[in-house]
Amino acid sequence: MALSKLDNLYRAVILDHSSSPRHAGELHTGCMIDLNNPTCGDVIRLTVVFDGDVISDIAFSGHGCTISTASASMMTVAVLGKTKQEALELANIFSAMVTGAEDERQEELGDAQFLAGVSKFPSRVKCSTLAWNALKKALEMGEAESKITHGE
User: Fold this and answer.
1) Burial degree of 54 (CB within 10 A; 0-12, 13-18, 19+)
2) Does residue 9 lie in a domain region?
3) What does the pLDDT average to over 47-55?
4) 10 pLDDT tier (thresholds 50, 70, 90)
5) Which of 70, 92, 110, 119 is an S-S bond match for 100, by CB 3.0 to 4.6 Å?
């Protein structure tokens, strides 16, 4: 069966974010979170810099599959410049979306809404949520410069 033009667009956006991830790299200041997905080996280090209540800078490094890398890239674009509360809301919308829940606010996710199809592949949900879970932990920690390492 041939893919529809929309499916091709989704794949192209995901591949673009995976092959040319936005905000990839490391920051030397901020809240640093290390997470891994022990079931597939994906690893992320997320660093978030807050200016008061706003995410003023964000970067990620590590290694992972196409879905994990694309999701991290999409997440950084979606939350940069957002308040902590706005970023947490986006993370919750994303988590619900990839587990099959529909929400009219999915548009707010930007390119990350293209990962909605992950819900059809339960083994890929952890790949797609790794960066978003790291973000949630960073939001919980706030201003403190910290590093935590654990699996999902």
Assistant:
1) middle
2) no
3) 96
4) confident
5) 119
